Amino acid sequence: MVEARGIHKHFGQLHVLKGVDLVVAERELVFVIGPSGSGKSTLLRCLNRLEEPSSGSIMVDGIDLLDRKTDINKARQRIGMVFQSFNLYPHMTALGNVALALRKVQGKGKAEAEARALAALERVHLADRADHYPGQLSGGQQQRVAIARAIALEPRVMLFDEPTSALDPELVGGVLAVMRELREDGMTMVVVSHEMAFAKAAADRVVFMADGRIVEEGPPAQIFGAPRHERTRAFIGQIERH
Ligand SMILES: Nc1ncnc2c1ncn2[C@@H]1O[C@H](COP(=O)(O)OP(=O)(O)OP(=O)(O)O)[C@@H](O)[C@H]1O
């Protein structure tokens, strides 16, 4: 579903990604971990070209994202993204926020957009809050609306960048539960997060990044239980102590 090869990214003098290869199979959940500043977010943002890689190649669902001939707005419809901040319009209801994406991005009429938006809100268990404004929802509920907005567009792959980092601890579980359901429904997912318990329980593969490179990747049992590289061991040891 995703095939990124030899990705380099420079921000001026700063060489942030130093030749990353990331291949994600259909229905796979890949979880990316690593120290702060190791390039996790930058890699994720390259996968839908929110950041332009300095070099390398990226195919998503058979589309060459870096080909000048590719209509990037159309390609992005296949790639849902959920950020740490929910970015909902405060003056629009939950339904309105989700329907807007369908109308603007896919040109759906009002009735169809709202029907699909409601179905997406049902998938995140918020159909009963469809007419609430973001300010009337908890952070966790707002994040689930943001997830509904992404899945309403029926993406082929979803990218999650620290989706629970802005939430109070008691609100994290609801968002992770929705992510698990998406995974069980067969969604292909790449997740950058510090929720290691979620990685252990739900990831097919864990990728450990340090200093702009993938140091080690494998099933959660290997990465958390028997890491092969010294840097992975040190990182896992550090987080397990916290
Ligand atoms: N737009 C930008 N301009 C300049 N430097 C940037 C930009 N975005 C990221 N960086 C730098 O690139 C490096 C990697 O950042 P990135 O956010 O990808 O790391 P990360 O592994 O996701 O970290 P964290 O876990 O703290 O979010 C950092 O040194 C960061 O300061």
UniProtKB/TrEMBL annotation:
Domain ABC transporter intervals: 2-236
List the keywords (alphabetical).
Amino-acid transport, ATP-binding, Cell membrane, Membrane, Nucleotide-binding, Transport
Quote the Pfam families the UniProt record gives: ABC_tran
For this protein, the record's PROSITE patterns field holds: ABC_TRANSPORTER_1 (PS00211), ABC_TRANSPORTER_2 (PS50893)
Organism encoding this protein: Roseicella aerolata
What InterPro entries has UniProt attached to this entry? AAA+_ATPase (IPR003593), ABC_ATPase_HisP-typ (IPR030679), ABC_transporter-like_ATP-bd (IPR003439), ABC_transporter-like_CS (IPR017871), MetN_ABC_transporter-like (IPR050086), P-loop_NTPase (IPR027417)
Designated name of the protein: Amino acid ABC transporter ATP-binding protein
Q: How does it sit in the membrane?
A: Peripheral membrane protein
Q: Which GO terms describe its molecular function?
A: ABC-type amino acid transporter activity; ATP binding; ATP hydrolysis activity
GO cellular component annotations, sorted alphabetically? plasma membrane
Query: Looking at the record's lineage, which domain of life comes first?
Result: Bacteria
The entry's family comment says: Belongs to the ABC transporter superfamily.
Q: Where is the signal peptide?
A: none
Subcellular location(s): the record lists: Cell membrane
